[in-house]
Amino acid sequence: EQQSEVQSEVQRLLRPDLRGRTAYGAPQLDVAVCLNTNENSYPVPAHVVEAILAALAEEMAGLNRYPDRDFTELRKALTAYLEKQSGVSVTPDQVWAGNGSNEVLSHIVQAFGGPGRTALGFTPSYSMHPIISETLGTTWVDGLRGTGEPDTFDLSAESAVEQARLHRPSIVFLCSPNNPTGTALPFEVIGAVLDAAPDAIVVVDEAYAEFARPGTRSALTLLADHPRLVVTRTMSKAFAFAGGRLGYLVASAELVDALRLVRLPYHLSSPTQTIARVALEHADDMLGTVEVIKHQRDRIVEVLAQLGATPVASDSNFVLFGGLADEKATWQALLDAGVLVRDVGIAHHLRVTAGDPDETTAFLEAMTRLAPDHL
Ligand code: PMP
């Protein structure tokens, strides 16, 4: 009883707009096959582990000092990686990093959103975009996608432009490839939104860019002409470094400079800067599993379609699939079979991460067994 008294006291003191909310987060369960948070299933290669440990050993005695506040070496490493991965050259002062891309997204909202301002996103999309916006006092507008065929969740340039003109946002969130639907945006949407929202920072969240199907063009290629554009990326997905907590963004040097107004000093610890820098030096090895994972993703789409489900085309390391009679029952039945997937709150749909071939097989065999009763 005492506990519930304290609980109601906390609720009384809490910011009114936070009362009764529940915290974001997928269940972290101890399950054989974890395909619920879009991680890369493969461990960090042994020789990269060794290189990281050697670099850390040299630095531990220096932990009495604060880290480099401007993470200079890490920025250079990110610049080199981006050039290699996307062919786009940027300078280190155009790159900003944080503890996961969630943190760099929060820096953008702290600097460009806030009370009296509006952020617009197109739902369903990454659910942290509204959470970060609202917890930082920004009004969130849930824009719509999917004017096309049912279940494709497409966003057309025409629809995005109309919604951006209507809501006059300070920030627009685009997500390409989009989580949880998986598909990359038509490239023209980005430029069209930049034109239609002249007072907005336009964020393109490219957390899954490295998994995109051939022919997908990155928003990085637009940066040179658009000082209001921000492209965010992460080492958590293709790079197989989710536990390292390193996300980053690329924008104009002036926009990046403004983010220094809101970041906490020394937000990136010395070990974080070091492990990320060394991992980036081994980028080819860290990304060595991307093709296998893309293949598993395509396999999931193919087999689920054969079973009669409706998988959405994916440029990511996960697949959203519909056609389920009761997604909660299927989620539980998969868990009972030792496979954890994600209920993203879309009726009749679940999202599954493409794992290694064995994990993918475990999921597909379970779905094959369940199909007669669940689809
Ligand atoms: N953006 C998108 C679209 C994501 O799906 C995720 C991870 N779920 C993130 C950003 C954040 O990832 P991290 O903070 O690990 O970089």
Automatic annotation (TrEMBL):
InterPro entries in alphabetical order: Aminotrans_II_pyridoxalP_BS (IPR001917), Aminotransferase_I/II_large (IPR004839), HisP_aminotrans (IPR005861), PyrdxlP-dep_Trfase (IPR015424), PyrdxlP-dep_Trfase_major (IPR015421), PyrdxlP-dep_Trfase_small (IPR015422)
Annotated TM spans: none
Pfam families in UniProt: Aminotran_1_2 (PF00155)
Enzyme class: transferase
Catalytic activity: L-histidinol phosphate + 2-oxoglutarate = 3-(imidazol-4-yl)-2-oxopropyl phosphate + L-glutamate
Pathway field: Amino-acid biosynthesis; L-histidine biosynthesis; L-histidine from 5-phospho-alpha-D-ribose 1-diphosphate: step 7/9
Keyword terms of this UniProt record: Amino-acid biosynthesis, Aminotransferase, Histidine biosynthesis, Pyridoxal phosphate, Transferase
Presence of the UniProt keyword Mitochondrion in the record: no
Domain Aminotransferase class I/classII large: 35-366
CC cofactor: pyridoxal 5'-phosphate
A GO biological process held by the record: L-histidine biosynthetic process
Biased composition (Low complexity): 1-11
Family the UniProt entry places it in: Belongs to the class-II pyridoxal-phosphate-dependent aminotransferase family. Histidinol-phosphate aminotransferase subfamily.
PANTHER family in the cross-refs: HISTIDINOL-PHOSPHATE AMINOTRANSFERASE, HISTIDINOL-PHOSPHATE AMINOTRANSFERASE-RELATED
UniProt-recorded name of the protein: Histidinol-phosphate aminotransferase
Gene source species: Humibacillus xanthopallidus
